[in-house]
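Q: My labmate handed me this sequence with no annotations at all. I'd like to see what the chain might look like in three dimensions before we decide whether it's worth expressing. Could you predict it?
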Amino acid sequence: MIDLNNYKLGETQELITVDNQDDFRQLLITMSQQAQHRIWIFSHNLDIRIYDNNELYEAIKNLAICSPRTHVNILVQDSEHMVKNDHRLLRLAQRISSHMQVKLTAKEHQDIYQTFIIFDDRGYIIHEDPLRFNARADFYNHLETKKLAEQFSEMWKVGVIDNRPGI
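A: Here is what I predict for the chain of 167 residues:
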């Protein structure tokens, strides 16, 4: 298991790579617990093996409700998996919609293979292959995070609200 005790969001500048599900999940949880302003997630379907667990749920909930200025935005290419599995983050977004939103990507963004998460415009995780658990991350890399945030913002603007039952 990866040891992230000495890593601080917005302070520790070091490229981290992981190659298994447990380390990927722990990296996501640790960075989410340290976020203070926002988390933006772009994912194919919010894989339940990574995103649907109590620790992440609590970290995102605590961030989303701690201040009127905090926000969690989730952009997915396919929400069917989330609905079928009663995903915790989907339920949370329904409960606290003023601080947390889920959108579907527009058609022009349906073919993007890479997924990524941005934390407070400071740190990021990039997940290159949704079929494997290889990812790279940095707790503090302003340039890469800014590039990802610009990409996310553009996709978010044209993303659509999923109006199917359960969403």
